[in-house]
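To whoever picks this up:

The nightly regression suite flagged NMT1-like family protein as changed. Nothing in the input moved, so I suspect the structure step. Input below, exactly as stored in the fixture:
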Amino acid sequence: METQKIRVMWFVPPLLALVASQDAQATAIGAERNRSSDQQFDALVAGDVDAVVTSMDNVIGWNRRAGPRDFRVVAQIERTTPLTVVARPQLRNLQDLRGANLLVDAPDNGFVVALRAMLRDAGIESDSVRLTPAGGVKERFDALVAGQGDATLLGPPFDSMAQAAGLAYIASVQDIYADFPGQGIVVRQGGEANTGVAAWLRALERARRRVSGNAEVARQAVLAAGFPGAVADAMIAQNPDSLRPTTAGVALLIAHRRSLGLAGADNDYSTIVDDSMMEQYTGGQQ
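Regenerated output under the current build:
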């Protein structure tokens, strides 16, 4: 019997996917690193991929674009996505970013919404900064190091790489918003390959439990993928208690949009999350 294979896009290979890849029962995946969330959107619309790993806020933005509007988060793959504002060395705090050129993935959806909320809470109005689309986390790191902007939002391993390159640590999203959620697995509802995605989620759940019980197994999987030990430890620290997207995290995403006056503040958990795939393998017990 031919093994079912699903196609996935992500910015950085997530821990649970690395651990699940060692599982002989796991659904085979064809994984591709993407350069931006817009590339993920286009690939899902075209049917070129079956799932993407991305900011859960993207579902809110994507469902308001011209197109299918049937995107849903089906799992949360990490406890939180550690995000750090990193800037040119002479910039020291959020107030210093007034008038700055900020490198972002997209100006109105994704992690930029948390960045904009941080700036608002620091008293910096949206029209006081410039948002320049520069792609995914690696692309933003490369652009910032090359001097093409003043600051950006980075996650592991690029946040530590940026500081090692002499760039300044400004602030952490998690220090300000403790409920900020991790990345989600996003699909289109009713997709033909969603049976395969559900099987992959079962493998990810087995991986999540393995990581909880044996961190060294997870560490070796990350090291084998070419990441340094510090990145492995950071990933393991974000192993979620459940693959079910947290209600507090989703509520925070909606609250950020509401406070910024962005479209999508009328969403609720059910318009962002479809947990029916998880029901298939947990029987409602998570």
